[in-house]
Amino acid sequence: MAIGNSSIEIIPSSQVCLGNSSGRIKIELFGDYETAATLEAHLLAKKMVEKYPEEIGYYFRHFPLTQVHQQSHKAAEAAVGAAQENKFWEMHERLLKEKQLGVISLRLYAREEGVTDKKFLDKLVNSTFGWTVRADLLEGLDRGVRSVPSFMINDQPVLIDGNWAKLPKVVKELLSELNSVKD
Question: Pick from 6, 50, 146, 160: most CB atoms within 10 A?
Fold first, then answer.
């Protein structure tokens, strides 16, 4: 992305992994910071990474429902901004728990989570990371995401109908399948 006379590389959320980015299972969670169920789904995905740290790479993908949640897109931009300083997961967890998601609050949260960029607020106001968030949203739409939270495992949609307790079973069955193919 070009800004003025300079060009900056933006690290997208599709490249920010919790767990093993080379793991045999890739979990992607498409979510919105103003949807309460996204926190629940995130915590479950995080537990899967803790249980199978060598097998799973977990990625959070932004799918802001801007017609319902006016601040979700800007919150997602703040998370992408924090990712530029390797603070994505700290900011992500903070945003999932906060109710105030205006730009001034987002700047404060970023600072409290260790983001040192003095132009962070300017970048939020100027939507420096807006296209990166939009790319996640468009990719989700292309892949069939219509609501949040939505899981993809190894690029396939996982239909668990809001019953997050099914996710560990799906992961365990997939690991079992992968292990039997390997033998």
Answer: 160
Chain centroid to CA 96: how far?
Answer: 10
More reliable by pLDDT, 161 or 154:
154
Half-sphere exposure of 174 (CA within 13 A, CB side): 21
* β-bridge partners, 31: 62
User: In terms of Cα–Cα distance, which of 86, 124, 85, 127 is closest to 108?
Assistant: 124
Q: What is the pLDDT of residues 85-96, one digit of tens each?
A: 999 999 999 999
| 32 in Cβ contact with 38 (< 8 Å) | yes
Cα-Cα-Cα-Cα dihedral of 130, 150, 34, 86, to 10°?
-50
Instruction: Return the number of other C-beta atoms located less than 10 Å from residue 20's C-beta.
Output: 17
Question: What is the homologous superfamily of the domain 11-182 according to CATH?
Answer: Glutaredoxin (3.40.30.10)
Per domain, the residue ranges of the chain are 11-182
Cα–Cα distances in angstroms (integers) from residue 70 to residues 13, 65, 93, 103, 129, in the given order? 20, 8, 19, 12, 16
Residues shown for the chain: 183
Distance CA 111, CA 132 (A): 21
- Residue 125: count of CB within 10 angstroms of its CB: 13
Q: Are 48 and 18 in contact (CB under 8 A)?
A: no
Say what the pLDDT of residue 166 is.
80
